[in-house]
UniProtKB/TrEMBL annotation:
Designated gene of the protein: IMPA1
Keyword Transmembrane helix: no
Main location per the UniProt record: cytoplasm
Any one of the GO CC terms: cytoplasmic stress granule
Full protein name: Inositol-1-monophosphatase
EC annotation from Swiss-Prot or TrEMBL: 3.1.3.25
Function noted in UniProt: Plays a role in the regulation of cytoplasmic stress granules (SGs) turnover. SGs are dynamic and transient cytoplasmic ribonucleoprotein assemblies important for cellular protein homeostasis when protein production is suspended after acute exogenous stress. Associates with SGs and is involved in the efficient and specific arsenite-induced clearance process of SGs through the recruitment of the ubiquitin-selective ATPase VCP and the 26S proteasome.
GO biological process terms, semicolon-separated: cellular response to arsenite ion; inositol biosynthetic process; phosphatidylinositol phosphate biosynthetic process; signal transduction; stress granule disassembly
Organism, as annotated: Macaca fascicularis (Crab-eating macaque)
Localization per Swiss-Prot or TrEMBL: Cytoplasm, Stress granule
């Protein structure tokens, strides 16, 4: 009887066993029986090549260029500035003392100096007031009452016990504050519209100090509108100072403008952005306006009159003195929005 031609012989020389269901090696494509199906059992030549490749790769590493560092990495970590290789621990410019590391300039140095000058002037004024004695205050009050009676209008035939005197104080800056509120709302509309569109982002003094075309557009709009109404007033704008203009606070009525307070939030389309406007006379803040345009919240504060949000008075710890001025300065001149 003829032998059936079923299956194949194992290719291992000392085996040659016929297997009806032979195995094919995935690497060398040889035919093997059940006993010699693994790469090791039939001495697969491809295993040697793979092992040699692994041994070669194990010796490839990249030393760190930082002084006194003996670390090595399996992949190259190249600094894009000095183009040297470093380990993961020294990959940043500050960590490996990069020779091309740029020291960031102090952010808004001119504004910080302005804040310090205002606070120092207020501190000196408070100290001088404390030196006045109670007797001097009483005398001044009596003199003021006498002058008030001399110039008072009314029926002079009435007995003095039925007469009350009221002093009408002129407020020369209320009109300016009302105009600042109007401008803040107008600028807020521009900011809200810009949040819906693509924006062109530029850098000022450092990679985190951003400015957009909207910042410049809003500041230009605010200053041109104020100049048209109050041509004799002065201005200090954040973007103008960043562009090189001098920040000089004089006794002249001065508008202090941050067109988009929170530019980083604005660039990332976070809703916490505001238009901030301050107003100083004789180097002292008179009022401040901060409009959180996305929330439609108008924060206003006036010297000696407290703080308000959309016309509702806010509760603060003190109603007079340095606390109000300190919060006001932070409100108008700092780089972040003051949340109430």
């Amino acid at each position: 009887m003829a032998e059936l031609d079923i299956g194949q012989h194992c290719q291992v020389e000392h085996c040659r066993r016929r297997d009806f269901l032979p195995f094919v090696c995935d690497d060398c494509s040889g035919i093997f029986c059940l006993e010699h199906r693994s790469r090791e059992s039939h001495g697969c030549p491809e295993v040697t090549v793979i092992n040699e490749r692994l041994k070669t790769d194990q010796h490839t590493s990249y030393p760190c260029s930082f002084k006194d560092c003996a670390e090595r990495e399996l992949v190259a970590v190249i600094c894009p500035h000095c183009e040297k290789n470093f380990c993961l621990r020294h990959r940043h410019q500050s960590d490996h003392e990069c020779e091309k590391l740029e020291i960031p300039k102090p952010r808004m140095a001119a504004t910080q100096k302005l804040v310090k000058d205002i606070i120092d002037s207020k501190t000196g004024e408070t100290a001088s007031k404390r030196r006045k004695g109670a007797k001097n205050s009483e005398t001044a009050a009596k003199v003021a009452l006498m002058k008030l009676k001399m110039h008072a209008d009314g029926d002079k035939s009435l007995p003095q016990i039925f007469v009350k005197y009221f002093q009408k104080m002129a407020d020369p800056w209320q009109e300016c504050m009302d105009y600042a509120v109007t401008l803040a709302r107008r600028a807020g509309e521009v900011v809200c519209e810009a949040l819906k569109n693509e924006m062109n982002v530029m850098l000022k003094s450092s990679p985190v100090d951003l400015v957009t075309a909207t910042d410049q557009k809003v500041e230009k709009m605010l200053i041109s509108s104020i100049k048209e109404k109050y041509p004799s007033h002065s201005f200090i704008g954040e973007e103008s100072v960043a562009a090189g203009e001098k920040s000089i606070l004089t006794n002249n009525p001065t508008w202090i403008i941050d067109p988009i307070d929170g530019t980083t939030n604005f660039v990332h389309r976070f809703p916490f952005v505001a238009v901030s406007i301050g107003f100083a006379v004789n180097k002292k803040i008179e009022f401040g306006v901060v409009y959180s345009c996305v929330e439609d919240k108008m924060y206003t504060t006036r010297k000696g009159k407290g703080m308000f949000c959309n016309g509702q008075k806010l509760q603060v710890l003190q109603q007079e003195g340095g606390f109000i001025l300190q919060v006001l300065v932070q409100l108008i001149l700092c780089t972040h929005i003051l949340f109430f």
